[in-house]
Amino acid sequence: MIVLAQLNDLLSLGLHRVWKRTAIAWTGASQGDAVLDVCCGSGDLALRLATVVGPKGKEKQRDCRGKAQHNEVTGLDFAANQLVTAASRERELPAAWSRPKITC
């Protein structure tokens, strides 16, 4: 993963970081939203969106036992190896923040 980040920095002259921030802003996502990242790849945008959605997201309903269920960021991709990478990066988030659900 480090090699890919370095390659992105080199080839885009660091502009990929601006593009990602801009893409996040264009989604209009805000604290408490539910977000779906289609073709999430290694999870870059899904993880950034999780920091926008914030801790636990907004309560959307309660299950049959009365436990609150919260909105979340869901990353979706057809490439299983990318999802493995995204899931490993997901574990790096602070425990209090909503964690993207990495789905195949």
Task: List the topology elements.
Blueprint (H helix, E strand, L loop, with lengths): L1 H11 L2 H13 L7 E4 L5 H10 L5 E4 L5 E3 L2 E4 L3 H11 L10 E3 L1
Parallel strand pairs: 1-4, 4-5
Antiparallel strand pairs: 2-3
Helix pairs in contact: 2-3
Annotation keywords:
104 residues; two-stranded antiparallel ribbon; alpha/beta
Helix content: 40-55%
Distance between termini? Answer: 19 Å
Question: Which structural category fits the helices and strands?
Answer: alpha/beta
Q: Count the beta strands.
A: 5
What spatial form do the alpha-carbon principal axes imply?
A: globular
Radius of gyration based on Cα positions: 15 Å
Major sheet characteristics: 3 strands, parallel
Detail the poorly predicted runs: none
Number of helices: 4
Order of neighbouring strands in the sheet with most strands: 1-4-5
The chain-level mean pLDDT equals 78
